[in-house]
Amino acid sequence: MTTTTETTPVIPLPARAATALTGLGALTTAASAALPWTWTSDFPGDLTYAGSPAGLQWLALTAGLLTLVLLLATHGTPGLRWAAPTRSHNGVLYAATGALAVSVFSVTAIAVELGGLANLEPGGWILAAGGLLTVLGALGLPLDRRIRVPLRTLDRRLFLLVPAAPLGWFGAHAIPGDQPVAPVMTALAGALALATGAVLLLQLGHLANTWLRLGTIARPLPAPRQLPSWAEVLIIVLAFGLGLFAITFGIDTEYGELFTGYLLLAAFVVPALTRSGLLARLRALTVKHRPVTTGAAFAAAASFPFTQTSDQYTSVATNILIFATVALGLNIVVGLAGLLDLGYVAFLGVGAYAAALVSGSPASPIHVQFPFWAAMLTGAAVSMVFGVLIGAPTLRLRGDYLAIVTLGFGEIFRITMLNLNGTTGPKVTNGSNGIPRIPDLEILGFDLGKTHTVAGIELGRFSNYYLLMLLVTALVVLVFARVGNSRIGRAWVAIREDETAAEAMGINGFRLKLLAFALGACLAGLAGTVQAHVSYTVTPDQYTFAEALPPNSAFLLAAVILGGMGTISGPLAGATLLFLIPKKLEFLSDYQLLAFGAALIILMRVRPEGLIPNRRRQLEFHEAAIPAQPTGDDAALTKAGA
Amino acid sequence: MHDLPQQLANGLILGALYGLVAIGYTMVYGIVQLINFAHGEIVMVGGFGALTAYLALPGGTTLWLALPLMLIAGILVSTLTAVAAERFAYRPLRNAPRLAPLITAIGLSIFLQQLVFSFYPDAKKARVFPKLPGDPFSLGSVTIQRSDLFLIIAAPLCMLALGWFVTRTRSGRAMQATSQDPDTAKLMGIDTDRIIVMAFAIGAAFAAVAAVAYGLRSGQVDFRMGFILGLKAFTAAVLGGIGNIYGAMLGGVALGLAEALATGYIQHLPGMHLFGGGAWKDVWAFVLLILVLLVRPQGLLGERVSDRA
After folding, report:
1. How confident is the model at residue A408 (pLDDT cuts 50, 70, 90)?
2. Which run of H or E residues covers position A601?
3. N or C terminus of chain A: which is more exposed, having fewer CB within 10 Å?
4. Which residues of chain B are within 8 Å of residue A604 when distances are taken between CB atoms?
5. Could you tell me which of A369, A391, A365, A390 has the C-alpha nearest to residue A378?
6. pLDDT, greater one: A522 or A412
7. Residue A432: HSE in the Cβ half-sphere, 13 Å Cα cutoff
8. Buried/exposed B139-177: b ≥16 CB within 10 Å, e otherwise
9. How far from A295 is each of A289, A302, A556, CA to CA, in Å?
């Protein structure tokens, strides 16, 4: 077998010089966090103090220190070897790029918002220099690279855009502004410019790829040192504590710049830790201690409200949980059974409306107040009935029909709720005003609407609902895990892969698909019952196909696909990201849906299996990319055949 | 029931509109088995293309002169959009699992809507579309809006042209062959890529005609108009039997008639007096789809096809 990979630096530097340069850069980046970056407190986060890092400076500190730790670990420094079990320098390069990204972003943000580079204090320059040095040094380290990466060129015809863009600009300016077509011309010129930029960027990416030739060498994970089992458990707990801290940091970011920096850093830190082998080692531990892992994850999530001083971010977290739970329910339908449901949010709506109607709200025409368990069961049951009603006629047919029928159902649900207002239909839902003043829940004498003090920490209304919602999420995770690994779950996967073959194996396709559909609807309804109480009011407009803010059917589907179909952590991560990005980056708000649509198209082309892919799906999507691995048996077989 | 002829006429006209859009769904589906969710947005883009042409003409141009130019501009814009979408979004995914292109289509639909919403001048609200001037004229007890004349003339013409194209021309027969069996068609020397592009382009051209008709009828175009129109048209395509171009037209007419009759008469049924009128017409169209799928899943004119693995 010919080797296709090598371990060489991109920039030819003496090994020691490269290491020193990387270390120096990382230290500089980290140290710059202690210096003022700008002179005025106008920049969000107030980066003017010496010795007390704030906002973006924390990110620079993290990136610098992480790079340093990984660098030392790959060089086998005693005490740090755990951080990079595979000893691959690619992890260092990723961390270094993260440092560069944070520094470039910070400097640019300061210069743009305050009007010019003159607003940088020396600390800002040191930060920029540190980021650059780190990456230069890291490129000189012996990296895992592919030997040959042919240069890909885009379709030559696309480069016609390059002369077309100035022509468009000229055209837009040649037309006087009072002509009615002038704005159209401007839009056209803008579109041309954007397209040209995209083409050039893409080609630049191909060039860079050919130059860097980064690849992965399958390095065996060295056998871990034998630790007593309490130590392994402690490591898991620590890891989840760190994870909780990282997620809390993301949710609590107060301004868009910090959140962008956070996302940038996260986008590089995760691959860095993957390349270094640390995540693989951690995964091995979690697989070994699965109950502890589940417990730790749950405990970490449950302790979130205790880290908060106000209800501001717990309300965000509660909504994330609702969104994530519904996404996980959708993942049963889409990810496991392969049924495309485009109106899933309607089932959330059914549950919410059912719960609102029996909640004792003065606006509800049914003047009853069910206890919460009964309301939950009602919501879930009504939702499930609707699921069966929609599913039964359509699931007998080819999968594509289901997509359109569910899309229709989502729309019809909204229209019906609007119409049941007393003038265009019976008076049930108050039409567009919705059902307001849904009373707070009281479970076993515990009023969720009031602030309670637990262990000296005040838990406000949203904290209570957060904890309640967490129980629902845990239930959905449990259902997903148990059903997914059962005979039923495997039958679903079989149907998803090939329905004809599955039926030939004795699976009743229709009944199992209906089961998946009804179960998905039921879980969404369950989440809806809590949502109704959390948001006080249910209105039809909360349940649309595509809106700028989640949850809606399009975003739910995107959360599942972005995260990874058929996994538990995928939709949870996808939902968190999709909820936080629009929430934190308000400057995007005008173009949010535009970017969302474009992102869906690009994602399907580039990484259709999602961020956290199901192993099997990943193989399926990248069949061509996986090199055939001839094993000894194969070779023997070929010889025998010859 | 004295206004039955009027309701039937309304239903027929509406149905012709649905049918024109449904052609796009059915042609693409018949050849690549893809529900092109973005087709509704292709309609919308065509409408805005036509509106742009109207705005670019000097004021006071008579609509009889402007209409052909608007039609050409609309067809140009929507066809280009559809062909670009096929080339850059759908073609790379032709061998991907079925869910991938469907999601691309949803993304494309949102993208096109927002593109118009964000960048077309004043498209945040509905834009006024010209109407054919003059009083409505009446045939017996039936009144027909003058703007609907366009649709009454254009829809049958389009259908005749399409029927002629599919059955009589070389490309049309190549299209039929591709939809029956793409692999064999390729072996027979048919450039299936070209046929697929052609299916997208023809669907888009019909969509632009529908968009102009829609604009003339309702006097406005807005960036959301494609969503419900597309949903209805897809329903019509399924009703008629997806993959069958005559079925699309028949399904459109059936859906239009059902909608008009439901709007007009449901409230006269005992116990249903609150469920009639325009507010519920979408609901009834949808109920009709479910009923038809229950009784005749392959649609009115469709043939039962076995799954192609």
Report:
1. confident
2. helix A592-606
3. C
4. 93, 96, 100-101, 103-104, 107
5. A369
6. A522
7. 1
8. eeebebbebbbbbeebbeebbeebeebbeeeeebebbeb
9. 10, 10, 27
The residues near A602 (Cβ < 8 Å, ≥ 6 apart) are none
Task: Indicate if the alpha-carbon torsion angle B75, B81, B84, B89 is positive or negative.
Answer: negative
Cβ of A536: how many Cβ atoms within 10 Å? Answer: 16
What is the per-residue pLDDT across B54-106, written as a single tens digit (0 to 9) for each? 888 877 777 788 899 999 999 999 999 999 999 888 988 887 777 788 888 88
Strands A5-8 and A143-146: antiparallel
Residue of A401, A561, A597 with shortest CB distance to B110: A597
Contact B92 A605 (CB under 8 A): yes
Label residue A78 exposed, middle or buried (CB < 10 Å: 0-12, 13-18, 19+). exposed
pLDDT tens digit sequence for A284-323: 888 888 888 888 888 888 888 888 777 778 888 999 999 9
- Contact: A416, B114; criterion CB under 8 Å: no
Beta A452-454 vs B137-139: how paired, if at all? unpaired
- Report helix, strand or coil for B139: strand
Question: With the C-alpha atoms ordered A259, A326, B108, A335, is the resulting torsion angle positive or negative?
Answer: positive
Chain B residues touching A187 at Cβ < 8 A:
119-121
**Is B55 in contact with A180 (Cβ distance < 8 A)?**
yes
* Chain B residues touching residue A600 (CB < 8 angstroms): 103-104, 106-107, 110-111
CA-based nearest distance B73→chain A, Å: 13
Question: Which of A186, A404, A420 is the best residue to mutate to test the B interface, defined by the most B CB atoms within 10 Å of its own CB?
Answer: A404
Contacts of B273 in chain A (CB under 8 A): none
Tell me the count of A-B CB pairs closer than 8 A: 149
CA distances from B14 to A101, A334, B11, B121 (A): 55, 35, 5, 29
Provide φ and ψ at B297, rounded to 5°.
Answer: -60, -25
For A190, name the nearest residue in chain B, comparing CA atoms only: B119
- Cα separation of A351 and A533, whole Å? 11
Cβ of residue A342 closer than 8 Å to a chain B Cβ: yes
Residues of A in Cβ contact (< 8 Å) with B274: 424-426
A 173-212: CB under 8 A from B:
180-181, 183-184, 187, 190-191
Nearest residue, CB atoms, B275 vs list A338, A425, A561: A425
Contact B107 A424 (CB under 8 A): no
3-state SS assignment for residue B134 = coil
A132-166 burial code (b ≥16 CB/10 A, e <16): bbbbbbbbbbbbbbbeeeeeeeeeeebeebeebbe
Q: What part of A 577-606 touches B (C-beta under 8 Å)?
A: 590-591, 593-594, 596-601, 603-605
Reduced to 3 states (helix: H, G, I; strand: E, B; else coil), residue A458 is: strand
Judged on CB neighbours under 10 Å (0-12, 13-18, 19+), A627 is exposed
Cβ–Cβ below 8 Å for B35 and A398: no
State ipTM. 0.85
Length of chain B: 309
The answer for residues whose C-beta is within 8 angstroms of residue A344's C-beta and 6 or more apart is A326, A329, A330, A333, A406, A410, A520, A524, A553, A556, A557
Alpha carbon A375 to its chain's center: 32
How far is residue A264 from each of residues A277, A301, B276, measured CA to CA in Å?
21, 23, 54
CB B200 within 8 A of CB B28: yes
Beta bridge partners of B138: B143
Residue partners of A28: CB distance under 8 A and separation at least 6: A64, A126, A127, A129, A130, A133, A134
A334 has a chain B CB within 8 A of its CB: yes
For residues B86 and B200, is the Cβ–Cβ distance under 8 A? yes
